[in-house]
């Protein structure tokens, strides 16, 4: 089998000057639009200091670099020595200043290339047994409102669920930032009723303006 090389380009670099921050290169500053202070993200770094043929060929290491620990395959460790020296960190954004993302301290060296940044989503990045398998979610019908993401369950094959009660049928995945919860059909109806009640209690002037905005968009 031939292994064709592929290209990774840095989108920024780890910087340390008393604080730790990610300096995004000017070419990629538009890509951080939408990130929020207080949000958790995943950093994918390239450990360039471990990038040489000798280190790439190491397939077993002593975890934590302690020879007292039995050798393990690098895929079962977080060692920086691996076939492709990638590192993944989950960090919190403390503040954003221009093209700088100030984050928690990490053990990467100053100048380490950042090859990608992704938001942290509990449902995908902190897996646990969930009532609704991923393949049963209607991802294309998802709606994002502010920081709230609504992911409905697929409606197909509902004939098989005739015996399932509204209290048992998990209808909606609700994500707020990285946090995830599941609403049953009964809870979904209760949420709709609560939202309608909150809407009706809005000032009349606000509801009138909302109605005017809706007419313009229809």
Automatic annotation (TrEMBL):
Family matches, as Pfam families: TrmO_N
GO biological process, one term: methylation
Keywords: Methyltransferase, S-adenosyl-L-methionine, Transferase
GO molecular function, one term: methyltransferase activity
Record-annotated TsaA-like domain positions: 8-129
PANTHER family: TRNA (ADENINE(37)-N6)-METHYLTRANSFERASE
Family membership: Belongs to the tRNA methyltransferase O family.
Protein name: tRNA-Thr(GGU) m(6)t(6)A37 methyltransferase TsaA
Phylogenetic classification of the source organism: Archaea, Methanobacteriati, Methanobacteriota, Thermococci, Thermococcales
